[in-house]
Structures are given as structure tokens and as C-alpha cells.
Amino acid sequence: MLRTHRAPTVRHTVGGWRRRGRRVAFVPTMGAIHAGHLSLVARARRDADRVVASVFVNPLQFGPREDYRRYPRPVRRDRALLREAGVDLLWEPRAGEFYPPGHRTRVRVGGMDEVLEGASRPGHFVGVATVVLKLLIVVTPDTLWLGQKDAQQARLVERMVEDLDLPLRVRRGPTVRERDGLALSSRNAYLAGEERRQAVALWRGLAAARARLRSGERSAARLRAVVRQVWRGFPLVREDYVAVLDADRFEPVARVRGRVLVAVAARIGRARLIDNIEWGTR
């Protein structure tokens, strides 16, 4: 596995692959690699001839009171896991080079960045869109792989790629979960003891909503109530939001028609966790 922090090296390497007719897939990450990231790498390997991954804790997507400085950075472990997974090129940008002094350009996907995570974390998705576009301009992949757990982020990036006519395909890998249903996340490392045991509430609430959807429930209000009823049995769970939205437009719906997303966010101790399920045909 070739490893670099320099964008020119990435351009040169990918350019050489392209001249030999190789297809390139890209998996961007913020590190603290877990089985969810590795499942995306595995899908990317099946999808392309070469796989590029990035590890970059992007300062632009963290608010002033968020966890940028304490975000987990197990660098050696991440490198070993990505090497074993078959990554061909690992790009580890340095923040000072990625955003040099005087860097002012920001990317915004209007509307979609103002709800759910955007409402809870103002400016977050401007940081996400900006970093992803910069990464894509350098890597120029055929395929970009993102995870379903971050459904709003994935849809926002899909919209950006569509709107800017970027010559690549965005693919999603399904959420990878622990045996008890907790979605894998780098922030799960913040959970300890009883907090970890109660974190399963997010999935159990979503599973209860899915069961009601399967039995014919179409009222968004009643689906939200089902999730909150489950959460009442987990006193450490502090709701941030429970929402039912159109999965394409990310607009709240009163009744389920077509494809919808049931999305949740909650704080448990120091950790802020998100999860979701989609319902309907994609």
C-alpha cells in the first residue's frame, strides 16, 4: 500500500493507473477505522481495479464545541487495517496543507444542509461538501463509496455530484452493526459500561418503527411516537431528533408515501450517535 500526505502524489499515481485503463474506487474516512469502513473497502475492491482511501479528520465539519481535538486518531492501527483490506493508495492529508492560510472557498448544498444534522450542527455540511469536493478533484475516482449510516451526508454528496455534473458514480454500503444492533461508529469509543448497553436504544427504536411500517402504519407522527416509546426504557438516552422524511428531498412527511427515511440522533454520555432506516424502493 502506497501512503502519502501529498495531493500531487495522489494525482500522479491515479493518473498512471488511468493511463493503463484501470478503474478507480474511492473510500473517504475520518479514521478510527472499523468494520463499517472495511465493508466499504471490500465493496470498492469488487467494483474497481484500484482502491484509494483517505484518512482526514476534517476541521471544517466540527463546530466550536464539538470533539475535533479529542476525535479518535489511532493512526498505526488504521493504516494496518486498510493495508490488510487491500487499499492500494492511502491519502492522509495534513490540515495545514489541505486548507492553507487564506483558504476561503466553501461548498454549500442548499436546503439539504439545514435539517437534521444541519440544524443540530450549523455549518457541518458546508464542511462536509467542501472536503468531499476537494478530495474528489484530486482523486478523480470512477466510484465513490459512502455508508448508509450517514444517510443525510450520502444524499447531500449525491446531490452535489449530480448538480455539478461530476463524472463519477456514488454508491452506498449498508449500515454495519454490532450483534445487538448498535450501528458501528467511531464515536462508539466514547461509550462506557451502562452507556454502551443503553446505546442499543437507537436501533431498537428504529426496529420498532420498521415493524410498524411492515404492519401498515403510515402516520409519521405515530412512527415517531413508537421510537420515543422504546427510548423511555433507556433513561441515559437524550433525544436530539426523531424524524420521518422523504429519502430523496430530505423534507419531513406527514404520511409515508414512496421511499422514506426514519432518522434518529441522541446523546448518551459524551457520545452523540445517529442511525436510520430506509423504507420503500430505492
Report on the structure:
- By secondary structure, the chain is an alpha/beta fold.
- The chain folds into 2 domains: 2-173, Rossmann fold (3-Layer(aba) Sandwich); 186-279, 2-Layer Sandwich (Pantoate--beta-alanine Ligase, Chain: A,domain 2).
- Helix content is 37%, strand content 20%.
- It is built from 10 helices and 9 strands.
- It has helices spanning 7-19, 35-47, 75-85, 95-98, 117-120, 124-139, 151-163, 194-198, 201-214, 220-231; strands at residues 2-4, 24-29, 50-55, 89-91, 143-147, 169-173, 238-246, 260-268, 271-279.
- The chain has a 6-stranded parallel beta sheet, with helices on both faces. A 3-stranded antiparallel beta sheet has the order 7-8-9.
- Strand 8 and strand 9 (271-279) form a beta hairpin.
- It is globular, with a radius of gyration of 19 Å.
- The protein starts with a strand and ends with a strand.
- The model has no long low-confidence stretch (mean pLDDT 96).
